[in-house]
Amino acid sequence: MFLRDVKKEKLEDREVVFSDEERLGARQCNLVRLGISSGEKPITLIVKGQNEEDLYYRMGMNTSFKVMMKDYCERKGLGFGTVKFLDPEGTMLNETHTPEDRKLEDGDAIDAFTDQIGG
C-alpha cells in the first residue's frame, strides 16, 4: 500500500489509518488490483452486478476499461461481450476508454448487467 493511498481519521480519541479501499467498503475477498503504471494516478471503481457482491477495482486512471471488463467476466463465468457496463450517468462504457476519458472519480460505481433475450 502506498502512503498516498492512506488517510487518517480520529476515532474515539485515537488515530486510525484507513486505506481508500477500506473507506469505500472493499475487503480482501472483493478487491481486485489491476496493474498501475509507475507515476499513474490510481482510482478505485465499484462494479455492481445483478444481485451479486460488488467488486472493487483498483486500477490506473489511464488503464483501458477492457482490462476490468475481461476480469469481471472471467470471475463471473460470463462471456466477454455479454455484459454491459454503465458509468454513473448511465452511459455505456467503451472498452477502449479509460477512467480519465470518462472523468470518473475514486469510488464511482459502474453497473454491470447481462443481455437478456426475450420478454
Automatic annotation (TrEMBL):
Top-level division of the source organism's lineage: Eukaryota
Ubiquitin-like domain location? 43-119
Q: Which InterPro entries match?
A: Rad60/SUMO-like_dom, Ubiquitin-like_dom, Ubiquitin-like_domsf
Coiled coil start-end: none
Q: Which PROSITE patterns match?
A: UBIQUITIN_2
- Protein name, as recorded: Ubiquitin-like domain-containing protein
Biological source species: Crotalaria pallida (Smooth rattlebox)
